[in-house]
Design brief:
This protein has seven helices and no strands. By secondary structure, it is mostly helical.
Length: 154
């Protein structure tokens, strides 16, 4: 085995990948945050068919998460406000870690009895998002972030 630079599988894409590879992680971090926000909007405002604060509180209570109002507000804070923060790269590590924990709770409390596949409300989707959030929590905000602009990263 030699220590030479690996050759691309698709040489025609090499220039594109070289030019944009440093933008890939900020895109992932943005998507993780931005995709949380609509879920928070469902819980906070009742948007997109969500139940608002009242419906979210009842859902938490129905699933044994008590005090339900506290769990409802935690989910709202993490998903809506935290989603915005992660998307722009502010307090990225702690919020992404909280999202990971929220997904673990969702997996074990709600989705695990339903098996693997998301189409049957299984663990596939929350596990994927939880693990991506954990990776973001480990990596941090990276470039193109408010954390980087202010010179702080938790």
């Amino acid at each position: 085995m030699t220590d030479q630079t690996p050759q691309p599988y698709f040489p025609a894409l090499a220039a594109f990948c070289d030019k944009y590879s440093d933008r890939a992680y900020p895109l992932v971090r943005f998507v993780v945050g931005a995709w949380m926000v609509p879920h928070g909007m469902q819980k906070l405002f009742g948007a997109f068919g969500g139940g608002g604060i009242g419906g979210t509180t009842m859902y938490m209570a129905k699933n044994g998460l008590e005090p339900a109002i506290v769990f409802a507000w935690l989910a709202i804070l993490i998903e809506f406000f935290g989603g915005i923060a992660v998307a722009v790269g502010f307090l990225t590590r702690p919020i992404a870690f909280l999202f990971f924990v929220e997904m673990l709770i969702a997996i074990f409390v709600i989705h695990l009895p339903n098996g693997w596949f998301w189409a049957g409300r299984g663990i596939e989707y929350p596990l994927m998002w939880g693990l991506i959030a954990l990776a973001v929590a480990i990596k941090g905000s990276g470039r193109c972030s408010i954390d980087r602009m202010i010179g702080k990263e938790v």
